[in-house]
Amino acid sequence: MLPGSLHALKAAIPRSLLERSEVRAWVTFARSLALVCISTLLLIAWNRAPIQRELGALGWPVWVLGWLGCGVCWAGLFVLGHECGHGSFSKHQRINSIVGALCLLPSFTGFHTWRTSHALHHSQVANRGLDPDWTQEFLTREELNGVSLTRKLRWALGLRTPLGILLGFWVGIAKRRLDCYFPASTVPSGTRRKLQFEAFLSLAHLALLLALGRVFGFTTLLQVHLIPMLVSAASGALLTLLHHSRAGAKVWERDNWSRLQGILEATYDVRLPRVLEWVWLNVNLHVPHHINASIPWYHLPQASAALRQAYPGLAPSEPFSLQLLWTLWKNPTLHRDGQALVVGVHGG
User: Which residues of 242-257 are buried (b: 16+ CB within 10 A; e: fewer)?
Assistant: First the structure.
């Protein structure tokens, strides 16, 4: 039997799992940063290795493995910034802001810009038209027939092909940047200057990368930094997609939505190889995170176990498989089911 209130869900999580450890937080920061540095140094070493040049095309598998490994590590650093945004890194908000800004800046993401948008996602998960994440991209068959060709193309490429995962992160950044300048945005006017300053920092970061490219060569910069960052962004987009969007996931119009529904019927845990869960700080255990976002990442496994013991009917925790993506790409249209709209459960 499922709970009848968000309060009941929160009560199922022991209060001890809300306690933060400054030591564990700083150890994780050092670990995440060390993984990024080590994986980047390995790419630099391979780039300079004489055998790499001698192997020619035969050396590309090593590059691919290096890019994947380094990109995974960059994604882990971003997830730590995500934890700072929820205040689970430190009891001191200034420390959360500083560490979060450092973790997110390499991906051209302003900390406060992202936190504002992400807070909206948590408060409006699966609320159609307000949730800023993937759920806003889904359309019914009738809506598809009435939208522009450009919108249809965006829907087809973004939700029926891997292109959405490859570009979704960067599209999100662009949207958040636009929110800094347009009065009709959801960003409070009092924070606009702070967000604009973050946009300036991102431009300064870009200028630094261009300068490094001039000094070390743009090919080297591409191989040891930019491609891993693309892998990192795609990893983040994939995780965000799997957390809330799959065949059978629900969204609601504003009049029929409740946050409890969004958590219970549109939020999922996706199990990954243990090493990925370790590097990505258990962010794949997403149901307890949406119930109480202040649970530190190192307590999420225990929180998930406590929830499922109290409420076995919660959305199942599934291992990742390509089938999850394939069933979504096959039919990403919405179909009405009572008061909800369900992703891809009818038709092909």
Answer: bbbbbbebbbbeeeeb
